[in-house]
Amino acid sequence: MTGTYVKKTKAGRRFAIGDIHGCFDTFRALVEDQIGLTQSDQLFLLGDYINRGPKQTKVLDYIIQLRASQYEVYPLRGNHEQMLLADRLDEIIPPYRDFFIELPYYYETDHFYLVHAGLNFLAQDPLEDTYSMLWMRQSPLPDEEFLNQRKVVHGHTIHSLSEISLAIQNREPILPLDNGCYRGLRETAGEYGNLCALNLDSFELIAQKNVDR
C-alpha cells in the first residue's frame, strides 16, 4: 500500500506527531498528558519510531496497543523502518514484522498530505515517488495545482522550534514537525530536542521536552 485517504471523524480532533526515535516516555507524555488522546481523535505518526532512543520496542508496543484498543492511530513508514525491512526482514519477529510491512508511505486528508520526508513536486506523480517520501531533505517549490489547497506535514529533517512555529503560524504549504527529539537525551530541550505535535484543525503546536533517560 502506497497511501490512503483518511476521512475526518465528526466529533474528534486530529493530531500529527513527528519522529519519535525510541523516546517512549516522551511519546507517552505527549499523547497522554499534553494531548489527552481519546478514541474520538485521530493521531497521525510521521515515521521513524525506532533507533537512536532507548526504548524503541516500547514505542512500537504502545502504538500497537493503542490501535488494538480502538484508538484511531495512523502510523506512516519512515526511512528507518524501511532500512530495517530491507536489511533485516528475516530477523524481525511478529507482530513487529507485520506492523512494519503494512506501514503506508503517506496519508491524505481533506486538507493535508502527511508523509515522512516530503513530496517531490518535480515527479510526474508525487504520490508514486516513494523514495522521496522517505529520504528527501529539501522540498522543491510546492505545486499549488497538485496540492489543491492541501498542506504537506512531514518529519525526517530536523528544524528548530522557531522554524516549526513560524511555518505553522504562516500556514505555509510545507509544515515540518521533526525537532530532533532524541537530541534531548544529551542536551537541554530548547530550540531542539522536543517531540512536536500539530493539531491539524486548530494549528496549535504542542512541544513535549524529552523526558527519557
**Subunit organisation of the chains:** single chain
Unreliable runs: none
CATH superfamily: Metallo-dependent phosphatases
Number of helices: 7
Distance between the termini: 36 Å
Strand order of the largest sheet: 1-5-6-7-8
CATH class: Alpha Beta
- CATH-level-2 architecture: 4-Layer Sandwich
The CATH topology name reads Purple Acid Phosphatase, chain A, domain 2
**Proportion of β residues?**
15-25%
Helix content: 25-40%
The counted number of beta strands is 10
Provide the domain count: 1
Q: Strand pairing plus helix content: what structural class? A: alpha/beta
Alpha carbon gyration radius: 16 Å
pLDDT averaged residue by residue = 96
Shape: globular
Task: Report the order of strands and helices.
Answer: EEHEHEHHEEHHEHEEE
Outline the biggest β-sheet: 5 strands, mixed
Please specify the SSE layout and strand pairing:
Blueprint: E1 3-5, E2 14-17, H1 24-35, E3 42-45, H2 56-68, E4 72-75, H3 79-88, H4 96-101, E5 106-108, E6 112-115, H5 130-135, H6 144-147, E7 151-154, H7 161-169, E8 174-176, E9 194-199, E10 205-209
Parallel strand pairs: 1-5, 2-3, 3-4, 6-7, 7-8
Antiparallel strand pairs: 2-9, 5-6, 9-10
Could you characterize the architecture of this molecule?
With 213 residues, the protein is of the alpha/beta class. The protein has one domain: 4-Layer Sandwich (Purple Acid Phosphatase, chain A, domain 2). The protein is 28% helix and 19% strand. It is built from seven helices and ten strands. The strands form two sheets. The protein has a five-stranded mixed beta sheet with strand order 1-5-6-7-8. A five-stranded mixed beta sheet has the order 4-3-2-9-10, sandwiched between helices. The model has no long low-confidence stretch (mean pLDDT 96). It is an enzyme of class 3 (hydrolase). InterPro entries: Ap4A_hydrolase, Calcineurin-like_PHP, Metallo-depent_PP-like. This is Metallophosphoesterase family protein. Keywords: Hydrolase.
